[in-house]
Amino acid sequence: MSLFNRKTQTQSTANGNNFLTELALATIHDGVIITNRSGVIQFINPAAVIMLDCGSAENALGLDYGLLLKLESKEGRELLENENPLIQAMRTNQQIENQAVCLVAGPSAKRIPVAISLVIANNNESNRIITFRNITKELAEESEQAEFISTASHEMRTPVASIEGYLSLALNPQTATIDERARKYLTSAHSASQHLGRLFRNLIDVTKLDDGRLRPNFEPVEMVGTVKQMADNFVMAAQNAKLNFQFGSNDPATVNNSGRLEQVVYGYVDVNFLQEIMNNLIENAIKYTPAGGSIYVNVLGDGDRALINVTDTGIGISSDDIQHVFQKFYRADNSDTRTIGGTGLGLYLVKQRAEAMGGHVWAESAFGEGSTFYVSLPRISGDEYEKRMIAVNNAKMVPQTPVNNNNQGGKQ
User: Most buried residue, 60, 275, 368, 372, by most Cβ within 10 Å?
Assistant: First the structure.
């Protein structure tokens, strides 16, 4: 009898816990969906029903999650399957946390910016717990902050440029005569003003994308040739720094006799964003690699991704710092980096630009042993490349409709 009572009490406790769990999920403002390992919805809370505009929980239960959770990029662009973080996480059984995307809600097609997360439950069913949080208010606050930073940066660029200009004149022997002691002070001030100018330029670049004023302009490209052309711009800078600079893998097995990569990789990217990414990564590699070192830039196709890496034999990054290097304003603080100028925005800009194109970035390094920075971007097939090129060329051939400036009111 006591055993029966103990079992009944255990079952009662479990039922009570389930009730409390469902009550908690029913009262939170975040949308919650639980699916089985095949992606079939088994539970949906009221907040998710409202955000997805699906009418009721009964309408959602038993459906594939993909029929309800339709996602776009945070810029409002349709996501390919290999760009969709939720699809990729469901397929690979990996967790995601607070990925910023746009949710397209049901019949109304209302677009809601959300931070979406996925957790794999540690149970026999391996349930997928999907949560999504409306971040409209957060984005509005971030936009206000970005607008302030952008406006302040614009206002401060002019006086800083004037200071830099006057210091340049003071240091020019043709316009001013100064002793060596004064020249030393003015040189330090000139260097500081240049650093401040770079900071303001980077702040403006970053905030333009943060607040939505700058959106990626996608076009189909052949990635290997495009990245090589960008990398070639740094050959002279690397030579001046006494560095060995090589495009293509440092593994001879992956290149032909001419040193060119055999693989053809197509992507759909914003070329200007890609240029900014390559500029920052290669400039960093040159900056943090002592004379006599080497830099390798490479592009490979990795399944449905185009993978770019910039590898150097420089001073490297400690394990404590490497997890923070893509954060805004973060700079590693050690005796080797203190003497090297930087704004702390370059790698944040790399991450920001890559994610705007549906990609992601990461770094591998060991202090004193060099670093490799990776940029993974969506890859398209040769057929898809040809189709998109035809569309681009056709768009160029369509004549632009002239604007009738005399018809201001829409009626004659």
Answer: 60
